[in-house]
Amino acid sequence: ARALLVGWRGGPGALGAVDGSGVYHEKQVGRYCGLHCVNNLLQKQAYMKKDFYRWEAELSQQQGDLQATCGPPRCLRSVGCRLSPPDFSVQCLEMSLSSAGLDMQWFDRRRGLESLDLLEPALVGFIVNRQDTKWSSRSLADSLERHWFSVRRTDGGLFYNLDSQLSRPQALGGEKTTIAWLQAVLTDEQSCIFRVCSCASGNDGSVSVAADAADAFAATAIAASTAAGAPLAAPTAAVHEGSAKIEL
How far apart are alpha carbons 50 and 47 in whole angstroms? Predict the structure, then answer.
């Protein structure tokens, strides 16, 4: 059924709308999937482009020239995926979620998607950084691109795919159907998953993107990563239909 527009969140100039299921959704504008990803997860236009650009500038100033280092910072090795400009870095997304009182954690996919623990009470949802292969008419060859999108859990336990490339939110269902959907979607080993919780979780296979204060700025990172190829090393220590209004 065609989604019914019932309202806006964010005031004049808002990027997204609330459909008939009560779910806020921003559609893709330009290369700002990182911004849409966070706003969709927060279920409102919490941030604008200028906010993310400010964080990226702060991160860039703090981290210095990555090209002068001997190798990628630890957070690059920990997260295990690469991004491509001009979209926003993983560390910028982490800062935006931290400002909203949420914790973004890299999930070790080697443990199996069943270990995501989608029923954890503190879980708000999860974020995916997917690697896509697209044909480039300019280079007449396939090229690799990264795309951020989020999946949010409702109070009723339903999960919604809030990918900004979709025309409307996609109801995934409960835990089992969401895991099955992820297994079908994430066929590339370079695609990453980040759990987003309302508080820090225990030793569940997730690793904070900023493992310590030194890493708090290191991963603008992933946008400035080295050449494409084998996956970066992972940490050695222990990553249908329904309707419900999503609220923080």
Answer: 8
